[in-house]
Amino acid sequence: MSLMWGRLQGFYRYRDLIKQLVIKDIKLKYRRSFLGYVWSVLNPLLVMIVMYLVFAHMFRFDVDNYPSYLIIGQTLFTFMTEATNQAIFSITGNGALLKKVYVPKYIFTLSKVTGSLVNLLFSMGAMLLVFLLTKVQFSWAMLFIPVVFAQLYLFSLGLGLFLAQAAVFFRDIQYIYSVWITAWMYLTPIFYPIGQLPQEMQDAIVQFNPMYQYITQFRTLVLEQALPQAGDVLYGFLLAIAFLSLGSWAFIRKQNDFILYI
User: Disulfide-capable partner of 90 in 109, 154, 227, 236 (CB 3.0 to 4.6 Å)?
Assistant: First the structure.
């Protein structure tokens, strides 16, 4: 308990540094971009349009309000992908700074995932636009959306911490993960309904794919105007906490050796 309290105190002490790192990452992402922050809205919108034209007309999935169904899955999965990919380089990319001054090493990973969360909030503009164009009925259930974001953020942070420490010792992690994330995308019902899959595969995805849990909860809030089942929310938080615990344990266990490899 005292160790956890010490970590929380350290987090509070370096809150300004975390803020500055997040702001720096966001500015760097859009530096010299003609449209700047507009890309946060335009990019997911254009990707959704392309995917809609391909999957809605070529495969003809029978999904109500397919554009909204599609952009929800695409936006949440893109956040997780961006957050974890950024986290992979959070330690190796700041090696020079870590050798000069002491700061808690997890701050760099935390700032990358938090920066991706800010980008997710920006991209909500594209999602809102699609909701308006497809006449989604807004309801009080949407007030539950931050709870879904909390689960997704904690899960991405945990996975990001694990990948960040692994990348220090095994630089091939970035290439392995890029292949894995592609397979993961196709095993997540982003552009197809889960009912298209064999029952055995459906059961495996529901039980072992965290992204299915978070995307489905979000779709329930928006497309069904209802709260997700309490058991699904609890399972989503348990998965997030499990990954956060694993990632934190692996990171803390190896962080003293980082300086020898970066």
Answer: 109
